[in-house]
Amino acid sequence: MILVDTSVWIDFFNRRPGEAGRELRRLIAEAEPVVLTGVVVLEVLQGLTRDVEAIEAYLAQWDMLEPQGMETYRRAAALFRQARGRGIALTTIDTLIATLVLENGAVLFTLDRDFTRLARFTPLRLHRPD
Length: 130
Prior knowledge:
This protein is an alpha/beta fold. Helices cover 55% and strands 8% of the residues. The chain has one domain: 3-Layer(aba) Sandwich (Rossmann fold).
């Protein structure tokens, strides 16, 4: 299962997608298990200037990973503190995304370098295009 981060979706929906957008197209075409989470949907939709309804409908077809209560948020806060202790300033949203990936045994597809730094000292797995 691959949770696709906002940065990749933005590239995917770009009129001229880059390598990440093309890789996401390949994953979708090969029926790889792509998933979303609510905060990624929020970030993608709030940045739209065109095709809002079509993109909302497109995103609605993917399964969602969501927090499972207090434990998810407790783990996210601990991860945030751990990262901060190593000099990595994560956003709250990125911390929650990483926690959801870890809790669900998923892989994260992102362009955000903060996740690369986080993966150095956690079991966070990142999708790397072939």
